[in-house]
Design goal:
Elements: E1 3-8, H1 17-31, E2 35-41, H2 44-52, E3 56-60, H3 66-79, E4 84-88, H4 94-101, E5 106-110, E6 117-118, E7 122-125, E8 136-137, E9 142-145, E10 170-174, H5 183-192, E11 199-204, H6 211-219, E12 225-229, H7 234-239, E13 243-246, H8 251-258, E14 262-266, H9 272-281, E15 284-289, H10 295-307, H11 309-322, H12 327-338
Parallel strand pairs: 1-2, 1-4, 2-3, 4-5, 5-7, 6-8, 7-9, 10-11, 10-13, 11-12, 13-14, 14-15
Length: about 350
């Protein structure tokens, strides 16, 4: 069995998106006969989540600078006899990756920004705007770009065409791992004021620091609200929801795969191109920055979408045409083609 390491982090500041997509890829690599370990900074919740998924964790100190981070990562690679390394972080610069490349048979970088020249063997960018970016390489990098390579769990693959209900019966509110603009209580409060009859499922991420406020809002609501804490069954939640309100991260691609129409808020700089790109294709309604939430505009947009069955049907169809949920398998095949020695013999 060959061994692959993942170098990625998650925290209240950067959320859980990097870890989530690496976990999806790791599960597929494991099925191909590879042993996978994670090298990650010491957030207890992230460490517990990785272990829960069945992977070994090597923990780095939170206070390491980039040079010290590199030193410890290289040491782990050597001690663990790692054959391939996958990185997923905005912090890693060209110098960092170049030094890693000298220590490893295969270097894969998951990226969203195209801000450096990559020495990596493979760069994966799953975003809808990926092909618009100008990527550079210091070697012979293979660039794997676009939503057909979206890294998501197996539960998001092989969906049949979604049937859209004429009447919205259940609303899903899912903003990702954190709620930096305290949007969830305001969204729930706004939904409760709507005259239409529907239930609400609200997903609470690992790093929500406003759970008490959300609970206080829900106590005063007339509409039925179900809390889900970081559900491992997100595909089922999306399929059982007629409409979603979401952030602009990886969840956009999961909603597209399940054919769930959505209103999307930008919650971080790296999400804005995602939201705008998906809105341009027609899979979501762009709600702009979450920090500029306006209840009147929110009511107008969501009320209009609830009443427009044909638009919701079109959004669902476009989403499933764009994302088929097989991106993780495609990325795994690219990795194995690039370095067949990683495949178990």
């Amino acid at each position: 069995m060959k061994k692959v390491a993942i170098r990625a982090d998650g925290s209240p500041n950067i959320g859980t998106g990097h870890i989530q997509r690496c976990l999806a890829l790791s599960s597929q690599l494991q099925k191909e006969g590879m042993e996978v370990l994670f090298i990650t900074k010491g957030n207890k919740l992230i460490k517990a989540k990785i272990k829960q998924e069945g992977f070994e964790v090597v923990e780095l100190n939170d206070n390491l600078n980039l040079e010290e981070d590199l030193e410890h990562t290289v040491k782990t690679i050597k001690n663990s006899k790692v054959d391939g390394l996958i990185t997923d972080s905005y912090e890693f610069d060209e110098k960092y990756l170049t030094k890693l490349k000298k220590e490893i048979r295969l270097l894969v970088s998951i990226d969203d920004l195209a801000e450096i020249s990559f020495p990596s063997d493979i760069v994966i960018n799953q975003n809808i705007f990926a092909k618009e970016l100008t990527y550079r390489s210091t070697g012979k990098t293979k660039f794997v770009l676009g939503p057909q390579y979206a890294l998501m769990r197996k539960e998001f693959s092989n969906f049949r065409k979604r049937k859209i209900n004429e009447k919205v019966q259940n609303m899903l509110v899912t903003l990702g791992g954190s709620d930096p603009f305290n949007l969830t209580p305001r969204i729930l409060s706004g939904l409760d004021k709507m005259g239409e009859d529907f239930s609400i499922t609200a997903v609470i991420g690992h790093f929500f620091n406003n759970v008490s406020e959300i609970e206080r809002v829900v106590e005063k609501m007339d509409k039925k609200v179900e809390f889900i804490h970081s559900s491992p069954q997100m595909a089922n939640l999306m399929l059982s929801s007629d409409l979603a309100i979401t952030g602009g991260g990886t969840t956009l691609y999961e909603l597209a795969a399940t054919g769930t129409p959505a209103l999307a808020f930008c919650l971080a700089d790296n999400q804005c191109k995602n939201v705008k790109g998906m809105a341009k294709v027609g899979t979501v309604i762009d709600m702009g920055w979450g920090s500029e939430f306006n209840e009147e505009n929110f009511y107008k947009k969501i009320s209009g979408l609830m009443k427009d069955y044909m638009l919701r049907t079109k959004m669902s169809k476009l989403g499933q045409e764009l994302v088929d949920g097989k991106g993780t398998s495609r990325c795994t095949e690219v990795i194995l083609r690039e370095e067949p020695l990683l495949r178990e013999i």
